[in-house]
Design a protein that fits this description.
The protein is α+β, with helices and mostly antiparallel strands. It is built from 24 helices and 22 strands. The two termini are 42 Å apart. The relative contact order is 0.07.
Length: 653
Amino acid sequence: MRYANNNDWALFVKERQKPPVRECIYESWLRSVEFGLDPFGGQLPPSPGDAPPRPEDEFTARLKSLIDGPLKSISVSRVAWLLCSPEGRILEISSHNQEISELLKTSGMIASSTLNERYAGTNAIALSIRSGQPSFCHGAEHFLKKFHSFSAAAAPFYGIDGTLKGYLSLIGLLPETDALLLGIVILFLIQLYDRDLRVTRFKDLYKDLKKQFTRIYNDDLKPIVMINRNGYIRQMNPAAMEFFDFVNRGGKEKNLENLASFKPSVKEIAQSAIACTDKKMEILISDRHLDVTYEKVPLYSEADEFLGSILIFNEKGERSGTSNETVSEAKYTFDNIIGRSSNLVMAKELAMRAAKTSVNILLYGPSGTGKEIFAHSIHNASSRKKHPFVAINCAAIPREIAESELFGYAEGAFTGASRGGRIGKLEFADKGTVFLDEIGDMPVELQAKLLRLLEEHTITRIGESKGTPINIRIIAATNKEIPVLIEKGEFREDLYYRLNVSSISLPPLSESVEDIPEFVRYFIEYFNEIMGKKVKGVDEEMMKNFKSYSWPGNIRELRNAIEFAVMLNSGEELITWKDLPGQFRMALLYKDPPELQISDPLLQEKLNMESSEKAICQKAIRLANGNMSEAAKIMNVGRSTLYRKIRKFGLKF
């Protein structure tokens, strides 16, 4: 990154010419001239009324204590920090280095002086006030010459309710101090401050949670399991180990759903942050079919991130007879898929057409885009809707038991096999639909067996030589690039073409921004009903932030954020900053401006190369008249590589 130098500054000040400086610096210099500031001036002009700084409140006091600690350990460094009011008036200025303290005082940076643009020209605080984002100003970028020996960075800081409390700035002496590095430190300190606010606010909640823990763990007779938000076991008490026969199953199982079959599913329960008590559940452990109730206590990190839950089971009784309860309920229909963006509407229409056939379907899309809801909807809109719907997460089944879980086994097939054998989840879905989520994580050895099932329409259990006829429809889903896995030898190409009869791509939320208000309304209504609240919605400023956010977790991230906010909200208010999860709140409040991002010197070249590569793909496919094998030969690449490029550039043929 190029900073303005003394020649650039002199060119502007003396000749009013535009030098090669950052646009924000040049515009600030122009405004400084309009304000009538003297670039060679001495002391800072007094602020209107020269009023004393406002009294310190709990927010600024906490921020000061957080900053002072780290800077004490580097007192030899010529760095100072200062706090300013929202108007730019200095509230506090401090350093553990005497040299910079004296220079700041000489330059007029003292408590009660003002650093906004009208009175101090271009500086880090003034730029941050102007942009509302972290900013920096280095050496000759300052409009006033007396500040040219400083390098500084500044950022706004906010209260728990999202209101602007003021600005924090770090100032160092040249040549040893880099403004960009100061900017990174500023962001770190701001995150530390925000985390401290959130932790303080949640102390009362944690006290209540501790009381619940004490009550829970004093009851050693009830099975108690701590799981993460994916349903993986973190801890369990002795009663739970006995209940799930944990020791006899090797004592190494991590996924609770591999110890038993649950209805409702543990995966569904684990992903929700809503506490509940006395909820009914059916559990199948080996050949025992149990009716239980469960209580759930959600767990949060200090940054308000939902980590998982504690489940407490109460046994009610055992059902007579045995069954293989591997079936999941297809709960959703196409009516549950909301949104009007063109990408989403196109995916929905294609899925509705595919549902009327029996072809296999491959759902593509990043995590959190709703692939499971699409799978449910396709099943419920098909002629198979009265038959089983079995959902299988290929990434969650341990490799050692995956074959027996999916394909079943005969009596005596291996040590510990149940008497009479057991049918697998695929066979249980006969005449229905199997949803293979995370298909890209299926072990290669199982892919061959699944391919045989799709080709011969028969299934062979472990320990048997004769296949059983089966009629199932496969809906597979992945967030991975299958052609890339094929190139690595991690996925069978012939299975890919068997599954990819109809391919449906689900768009990330960042490409469906116009749907966000509708999603927000839907989730608020949903969680209002579940929690018995009357949250009215989100305020206008919050909605603007929602639309500008990148949503790496897509619809699931939005759903989780609204769930958390409704839970914290008093019940009849608009959702505001104070209701948001900590990390999500930070991402919205402090968006790094381009000037604080380390630039890629080859970015334009990379973009040009990608544009050329896309054009080559298009031309090769046109020359081959749409024959992908021929097009791959023209480009001298493998066919799977060509398909990966087609998906990368979003080409349609």
